[in-house]
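Figure S7 source data.
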Amino acid sequence: MKFNYRRAGSLKEALEILSEGDESLKILAGGTDLLVMIQDKLISPGVLLDINGLEELKGIEESNGRIRLGALVSHGQIAADKLLREKALPLVESCGEVGSPQIRNRGTIGGNLVMASPSGDSIPALYVLGAEVSLKSRDGERVIPIEDFFTGVKKCVIRPDELLISITFPALGPDDRGFFKKLGQRKALAISKVSTAAVLTLRAGVVVSIRIALGAVGTTVLRAPRTEAFLTGKSLAPEVITEAARLCAEESRAITDIRSTGAYRDEMAGLLLARGLEKLA
Ligand SMILES: Cc1cc2nc3c(=O)[nH]c(=O)nc-3n(C[C@H](O)[C@H](O)[C@H](O)COP(=O)(O)OP(=O)(O)OC[C@H]3O[C@@H](n4cnc5c(N)ncnc54)[C@H](O)[C@@H]3O)c2cc1C
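Tokens for the predicted flavin-adenine dinucleotide complex:
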């Protein structure tokens, strides 16, 4: 296989190159998905545009109660970050479950989103955190709520002339709790059969609000609105958790594919929710 390699020296240069409209060009971040696709001959790009030198796409910052992650932040950086552990625990737990140490050190959060795989582990966590995705082209920037970013299996709204620049979301407050739980074939180096993420506000042991997201059960991440409504206003008593797990399994209506059956995924989506809630209780 042969391709030209270009390394963007600045964001402006990267956006200029993308605006040229070369359909054979692919953006290279960590390469953990892209290089596998090239190796497996699923794609054969004419040009690889390496964006790893772009400082604007790096860093983890908090400002005015919002957290910003550059698109090039790796899963390993997120999993080890103290600020995120305190204020975005579901994301820390999800990135800590990606692949293996080698994959986590190379693979980026931006690449995970643009791949738009139904089993992308950071995605359910970003749903429950209420994240927004910033996309930039030579013509300007647009900010998309995460729920509007994905349009199907491995499909999202990013245009060929755009770069994913950053992801932002509100930092979790003192009354907020959250978790991410994943079930794969093995404990490491396994794509999710199903994953469950949640963020809830708890006051005096009562759920004031909750967001639940299920990964790998459908073409994109699913929310569980009936389970969320059921839990709101309740304390996390064992019988409440059991009923929430049952409702969540019912709402999941998962697909069957090579990794698992829909029925198993449904049951496990509920069980993962129950495990997370039990720990919080
Ligand atoms: C062995 C193995 C195990 C894995 N395990 C998991 C797992 O458990 N969970 C999981 O979720 N994923 C897993 N993955 C998938 C992969 O590691 C992640 O999806 C990773 O986050 C991809 O990021 P990257 O930086 O490597 O992307 P790349 O491979 O560099 O790029 C992926 C795609 O995104 C595009 N892209 C990347 N960054 C940008 C940007 N900023 N703007 C626009 N387009 C961009 C690229 O052009 C390409 O099309 C695994 C992969 C391997 C090989």
